Amino acid sequence: MVSGIVSGRLALVTGAGSGIGRAACQVLSREGATVIAADKDYEAAVETIKKHIALASGSNSVGDHSAIELDVSSSKSVSELLSKLQRQYKAPPTIIINSAGITKDNWMLKLSEDDFDSVQDVNLKGTFLIMQTFAKALTEASLSGSIVNISSIVAKYGNVGQTNYTASKTGVIGMTKSAAKELGKFNIRVNAILPGFIDTPMVGTIPDKVKENFLKMIPLGRLGDPIEIAEVITFLSSDKSSFVTGATIDVTGGF
């Protein structure tokens, strides 16, 4: 039996195939949770479970970790996921991490409607669908829970070439605050993390010159590690943050 701050809990992590989502799976499992790694790229989710999870499959009290293919922008895909998990684990996850996200950057004057819509569909609507579906399942099962949504520091400050992404991540903050007010009576907490510039595949696409300019604006002088976000995710998932809801937490190195 593994002890940890989320020991014995079932955790769903979207966008688990890389970056912050993969790191969240690592730290949550290290702290005793059974992890469901969900990603549109099923092979990447499998890799997270097989190569990156801190604990061997089946070493937690709830059951084996699992990898599942998921399109967060599809209500059908999300509802099928819930049905699968109910069958497999006999209860909904009590930790829900909304980490799935995409970018399709361009100058606003050149941004296509399709690229605007697809970013909203994944980042904003996807977060909504997961929250709605799984919060409903928790209320029906009379279970308390914690939902952690991944926004971005650009939601506060904006960013050149990211009008679509910024809009989606600002929307996540507003949704988080509203959902926290609605779900508090069910003892379901909802919080958002605003990562700064983190060493993920998404940030890896930024040109080196632009990256250098950003580093000058970070007092700690470096990119963040995905694990550093995952530690905050795990804190918000645990009883150590039992009176924290509706909060937005910057994890930016001081940016």
TrEMBL record:
The question of whether Cell membrane is a record keyword is answered with no
Q: Does the keyword NAD apply?
A: yes
Q: Tell me which domain of life the UniProt entry assigns to the organism this sequence originates from.
A: Eukaryota
Which EC main class describes this enzyme? oxidoreductase
Q: List the SUPFAM superfamilies.
A: NAD(P)-binding Rossmann-fold domains (SSF51735)
A single Gene Ontology biological process assigned to it is: estrogen metabolic process
GO molecular function terms here?
estradiol 17-beta-dehydrogenase [NAD(P)+] activity; quinone binding; testosterone dehydrogenase (NAD+) activity
Instruction: Name the GO cellular-component terms.
Output: mitochondrial matrix
Q: Which UniProt keywords apply?
A: Fatty acid biosynthesis, Fatty acid metabolism, Lipid biosynthesis, Lipid metabolism, Mitochondrion, NAD, Oxidoreductase, Phosphoprotein
Q: In which pathway does it act?
A: Lipid metabolism; fatty acid biosynthesis; Steroid biosynthesis; estrogen biosynthesis
Compartment annotation: Mitochondrion matrix
E.C. no: 1.1.1.239, 1.1.1.n12
Primary location class? mitochondrion
Name the catalysed reactions: testosterone + NAD(+) = androst-4-ene-3,17-dione + NADH + H(+); 17beta-estradiol + NAD(+) = estrone + NADH + H(+); 17beta-hydroxy-5alpha-androstan-3-one + NAD(+) = 5alpha-androstan-3,17-dione + NADH + H(+); a (3R)-3-hydroxyacyl-CoA + NAD(+) = a 3-oxoacyl-CoA + NADH + H(+)
The protein's assembly and partners: Heterotetramer with CBR4; contains two molecules of HSD17B8 and CBR4.
**Could you say which protein family the record assigns here?**
Belongs to the short-chain dehydrogenases/reductases (SDR) family.
Q: Which named protein is this?
A: (3R)-3-hydroxyacyl-CoA dehydrogenase
Q: Which organism is it from?
A: Papilio xuthus (Asian swallowtail butterfly)
